[in-house]
Design goal:
The two termini are 20 Å apart. This protein is mainly α. The longest helix has 26 residues. The protein has one domain.
Length: 134
């Protein structure tokens, strides 16, 4: 069964891996989105775009590469603290950074493609029985 999961993760990501990855990516986009208006003009932008969810604000205000580290500061602290493998966090970080720079909204199909290109084995997730943490 472990071999099956390992093979699955190299092709089409498992539902567990997709769900966890989606939550982590959207949370990082949300944190970034809450920081973008303060870097673009402050409170007046919040009032003007109050109907835009924070995880989508970058579609209106794409982020410059030099801003990425500041707006994503601590975005991955909780996943790393609870044992999500570094290799998965790094893949998600690269994915989120690309979305922020491109001003592109989160899309499950894009995430699935990103995860299918990694060699991540979902049996290493801390929630999977018998998982070994990196």
């Amino acid at each position: 069964m472990t071999e099956q999961r390992g093979k699955e993760a190299k092709g089409d990501p498992s539902p567990l891996l997709m769900a966890i990855s989606e939550l982590m990516a959207l949370r990082a986009l949300e944190l970034a989105g809450k920081r973008i208006p303060s870097r673009r003009g402050g409170r007046s932008l919040w009032d003007r775009y109050k109907d835009v969810p924070p995880w989508e604000i970058h579609t209106i205000f794409p982020v410059r590469p030099e801003e990425l580290d500041k707006i994503l500061a601590n975005a991955w602290a909780i996943p790393l603290r609870i044992g999500v493998p570094t290799s998965l966090v790094e893949a998600l970080d690269m994915h989120v950074r690309a979305l922020l720079i491109a001003g592109r909204a989160f899309d499950r199909t894009d995430l699935r493609l990103t995860l299918s290109r990694t060699s991540f084995d979902d049996t290493k997730l801390p929630w999977v029985k018998g998982a070994s943490i990196e």
